Amino acid sequence: MENKDWKEECAVVGVYNVTNAASMTYYSLFSMQHRGQEATGISSSNGEKIVTIKKKGLVTEVFDNESLSKLKGFSAIGHNRYSTAGEDSMADAQPIFARYDLGQVAIVHNGNLTNAKEIKQELIRDGAIFQSYMDTENLIHLIARAKQENLVDRIKEAILRLKGAFCFIILSRKKMFVIRDCNGFRPLSLGEIKNADGSVGYIVASETCAFDLVGAKYLRDVAPGEMLVFSQKGMQSYNIMPSNPYPCVFEYVYFARPDSHIYGNVVYNIRKAMGEELALENPIEADLVIPVPDSGVAAAIGYSQKSGIPFELGIIRNHYIGRTFIEPTQQIRELKVRLKLNPIKELIENKRIIVIDDSIVRGTTSKQIVKILRDCGAKEIHMKISSPPTISPCYYGVDTPDISELISARMSNKEVCEFIGADSLSFLSLEGLKRSVGLKDYKFCQACFDGKYIL
Ligand code: AMP
């Protein structure tokens, strides 16, 4: 919980027993670009050696035909790295590759280890030399030092030392290993690929939108606490930790693509339901419902359909600008909101507007949006957020800033409303969030909204 400086969160993918595995990995990473834009990388194996290419930049900037042609083989893993303020060195790009006594491994990780600091200190005391700031590197050292004879047992031994959120995909020259932590904080799905010769290949990815792009069939989610081993014998499953599912509800709120299936539900439907709940909980008279593009679109459609207030795309987004969170300084963040979003004045002028977004973190986006709508002559601006106030940082893999920067941790809703300059502000309740998600048997990690950390 205390380890905020080694956070990792991203997209991961692994492909096994597929001709030209690297190119399938490339397309999968492309479909999951929203989960990380800072750096990307692929390791592939032809059974003899592992080759890794990783670089800062978007998937389409880093890879081309020439680089992909160097990534030969039947198995590959890939990673998109999310930007984390301050730490952007190449040493922190993944996959991480290492040679050790049993051969070669490459590892990708989505999540955040909460005991990484202690383990790292212990390893350093024991003579280990670290090359990056990533908690993921711990796993390489633990595997290399484990006492067991084969890699499966070494991975099990190493994994049992780790606490926190992790989806790991580990590539050896001949096999691929997939592990999801016992709480299943971050999503991870398993799919099947039919090769041209009739043989079966496998794909594991953070989001199912990757399967749609490469033509894979969704089989199931990797279970919390499960390890999958892919080898020439096919796929084997082991339960290596007792499972206690607490998947992250913020995947539904913001992080995942709306067309992905997360924990068995289409994200778009859940976001729409959040908007419907918001309309039931917070009715208000208005002329138009408009979304903050793209994060508020599905919820705004839900709100509009439930309330009967017309939906319009009142603000248009320039898609060629990255996410506002990426820039480290407040000054640039504000400029980027203006570069990214442009209102349609004729729609807004003299209207009572309901604006929907998925969340307020620092308050920067909402404040800017209220200002540009006021500048267009909106008569009233009612900001509605399709999740509860974000009051606590995430230690399990979502990039939220320090608690001192979370506006709802410092201010009441009334004060936040004054800060952003809206006529009213309302959030979805925790109960409303639960109803929208609708999975009765599921407990979700919602620590960002209620401050209750289970680790
Ligand atoms: P802020 O401007 O700091 O209040 O951030 C709120 C905006 O950031 C909203 O439009 C959200 O869609 C978006 N957002 C929320 N969480 C994240 C995150 N972890 N990474 C990037 N953007 C986010």
From TrEMBL:
Record-listed [4Fe-4S] cluster binding positions: 248, 394, 445, 448
Q: Which family does it belong to?
A: In the C-terminal section; belongs to the purine/pyrimidine phosphoribosyltransferase family.
Which organism does this record belong to?
Helicobacter apodemus
Any GO BP:
purine nucleobase biosynthetic process
Q: Which UniProt keywords apply?
A: 4Fe-4S, Glutamine amidotransferase, Glycosyltransferase, Iron, Iron-sulfur, Magnesium, Metal-binding, Purine biosynthesis, Transferase
Q: Where is the Glutamine amidotransferase type-2 domain?
A: 10-233
Q: Which reaction does it catalyse?
A: 5-phospho-beta-D-ribosylamine + L-glutamate + diphosphate = 5-phospho-alpha-D-ribose 1-diphosphate + L-glutamine + H2O
What Pfam families does its record include? GATase_7, Pribosyltran
Q: Which Gene3D superfamilies does this UniProt record tie to the protein?
A: 3.40.50.2020, Glutamine Phosphoribosylpyrophosphate, subunit 1, domain 1 (3.60.20.10)
Task: Give the cofactor note.
Answer: Binds 1 [4Fe-4S] cluster per subunit.
Q: What does this protein do?
A: Catalyzes the formation of phosphoribosylamine from phosphoribosylpyrophosphate (PRPP) and glutamine.
Pathway the protein contributes to: Purine metabolism; IMP biosynthesis via de novo pathway; N(1)-(5-phospho-D-ribosyl)glycinamide from 5-phospho-alpha-D-ribose 1-diphosphate: step 1/2
The EC number(s) attached to this protein equal: 2.4.2.14
The record's NCBIfam families line, in alphabetical order, gives: purF
Q: Which GO terms describe its molecular function?
A: 4 iron, 4 sulfur cluster binding; amidophosphoribosyltransferase activity; magnesium ion binding
Q: What is the lineage of its organism?
A: Bacteria, Pseudomonadati, Campylobacterota, Epsilonproteobacteria, Campylobacterales
Residues spanning the membrane: none
SUPFAM superfamilies to which the protein is assigned, alphabetical: N-terminal nucleophile aminohydrolases (Ntn hydrolases), PRTase-like
Q: Which cofactor does it need?
A: [4Fe-4S] cluster; Mg(2+)
**Residues where Mg(2+) binds:** 295, 357-358
UniProt name for this protein: Amidophosphoribosyltransferase
Which residues are the active-site ones? 10 (nucleophile)
Judging by the UniProt lineage, the source's domain of life is: Bacteria
